[in-house]
Structures are given as structure tokens and as C-alpha cells.
Design brief:
This protein is of the alpha+beta class. The protein is built from four helices and eight strands; from the N terminus they run αβββββββαβαα. The protein has helices at residues 6-17, 104-118, 160-171, 181-187, and strands at residues 21-25, 32-36, 42-46, 56-60, 68-73, 78-83, 90-96, 127-133. A four-stranded antiparallel beta sheet has the order 1-4-3-2. Strands 5-6-7-8 form a four-stranded mixed beta sheet, with helices on one face. The chain is globular. The chain starts with 5 loop residues before the first helix and ends in a 6-residue tail after the last helix.
Amino acid sequence: MLQLGKVQLLGEEMIRLGVDICGLSEVRWDGQGLIATLDGHTIVYSGRPTQGMSGVADWIQRIIAGALVGYEPVSDRVLVLRLNAKPRNITLIQVHGPTTAATDEESERFYQDLSSLAVKQVPKRDMLLTMGDFNDKVGRSEPSTMSSAVGLYGLGETNKAGEQLEDFCLEHEMALANHVQTISKAAVYMGLS
């Protein structure tokens, strides 16, 4: 996202694909904030104090940008957005999890931020969607040991980061899914007034 023209290209592709909200990981922008593109789309981002590493962002299509109620840049790995929607408001949490090469402290800090500063702050009536790159691998569960967070649709073997993600989901009564249209369909219900 640091190259000239990437934001414009992103907007064109999202419109072409019919995507209303696109979560971005590792944008490498510094600071935190909200910008409007030349085409009227909105990008909310959260990065480090200096440019060049990590960072998360959400691109919001201009037609639903007015539904943005607020945002909280938790860290360069966690960004929370709240959108006015019907029948329920939507809270989106964009993440970029540490890689398996990260220290245990980094992984613990990520999940602490995600839990205490993001998930636990979400109003109970909101629809909660967490999206992004958790840098993990969650394998397929056997029917006898199937987790309510994973189900039968994992792929391959679960790694340590995948176990952490599964534990997090179980703790917060969440389920893992991999479906790109979820947010686009949810956007249909946004209150734009």
C-alpha cells in the first residue's frame, strides 16, 4: 500500500468485485486515522509510529461510508470499526496476528489487546465480525473431537498459532469462518440515513 496508485487500484477492484468493505493487513502506514480517497471511499487505518512495518486498515465503499459510527485504533495489529446497520449495528475488528516466529510475549499481547480492548468492549447487541490475517493454520477437526469454533472445514494440520486462535474463539463463543461475501451481504442491511 506504500506504492503510488495502490489506493486507487484497490478502490477500482473493490467496486468491480462488488465489495463494500475490505480489510487490509500489513499496510505499512505510519500513525492512525481516517482518510477519504479522491473517489469518495473511506480508509481507516492503524499503524506503528514509523512507516514500514505491519499496520491494519479497512477500506469502506463510498455508498456505505456514512454508516461509520466510529473507530478505535487499538494497535498496529488491531483496528475496531462500528457501523450503523439494521437490524443490528456491526462491529468489525481487523487484525494482523504475529507470525509463528514471534515471541510468546508478542502473541500474548496480541490476544490480550484483541480480547480486552476489542471484543469485550463490543456492545452485546452488535453483530461482531473479526477479519484479517491471524498468521495461523487451523486444521480439520475429527467428528469425535470437533470444536464448536472450527467444525469440519479446516485444512491440514493445526499449528501453535491455530491452537491459540481456536482457544480465543472458544473463550469468546466465536466460530471460525472463511467467507469473503459475509461482510458484503451484511452491508446490504446498513442504515444509511
